[in-house]
């Protein structure tokens, strides 16, 4: 017996490593995904390295004597209507936009996976109640719901000091709003996967051997639904960034003193013709970020799907 176990464990590790290598090869063969990963890396470098050059005080410094100046060597993206440097503001605005996308998706995935696993695994009355709630949430126009809640609660929270920076309280509100209104599709995906997985032989065997439900879910179900969850979460970050941009552009999103790409665009509305540089820079960054994340998500979907042989 002692001679068999190491061989079995070694074989399992070898199969797992081979599976990882195949996924990596499929990802690298997907040209769009590679381009998306490079673009996203450059954007992350822009918002991180840029903050080492410019301070948040530089981004918020207003000088009416230099208002609405076009791009120049001193101000590569020009200045806004109160004389703030747009280049510095897109750096710090990008940090907040990306943070909102990441944290909102964390909230969304936590809710969606929990509800999907519970409804799919236990079924019965729990499934009926939670899926009716999910369907009710899906029937509400998301953008209208976001605008309504953001308008009501966006200004209720005071600014907070964190890591030496000042964050508008509306940042927390926007993260929670987006997270609590975007979990429904993931919950339905996870539920359908769990419904099929819980009838497989190894789950039935684990249950027959007396394994606790929590152990079955943690050890057998969650690892097997991880791939679609990763893909959905990746694409969800792009969606959350867009949603934040929508509501900030409409004036009910993240408020001062915190900059985001969305509220920089909001400040440019009155100057679309007079000062196009105010919207070109943040608009381009939003487009490039969302596009790169979507390309990355598409590549991850193909790489993590063992049935996929797409190479481009």
Protein described:
By secondary structure, the protein is mostly helical. It has one domain (42-52, 78-304): MetI-like fold (Orthogonal Bundle), CATH 1.10.3720.10. It contains 12 helices and 2 strands; from the N terminus they run H-H-H-H-H-H-E-E-H-H-H-H-H-H. The two termini are 47 Å apart. Mean pLDDT is 83; it is low at 1-9.
Task: State the main characteristics.
312 residues; mainly alpha; MetI-like fold; two-stranded antiparallel sheet; 71% helix; elongated; disordered N terminus
List the helices and strands and how they pair.
Layout: H1 4-29, H2 31-53, H3 56-60, H4 86-122, H5 124-138, H6 142-153, E1 160-162, E2 165-167, H7 170-180, H8 184-197, H9 201-208, H10 213-249, H11 261-267, H12 277-304
Antiparallel strand pairs: 1-2
Helix pairs in contact: 1-12, 2-4, 2-12, 4-5, 4-7, 4-8, 4-10, 4-11, 4-12, 5-8, 6-7, 8-10, 9-10, 10-11, 10-12, 11-12
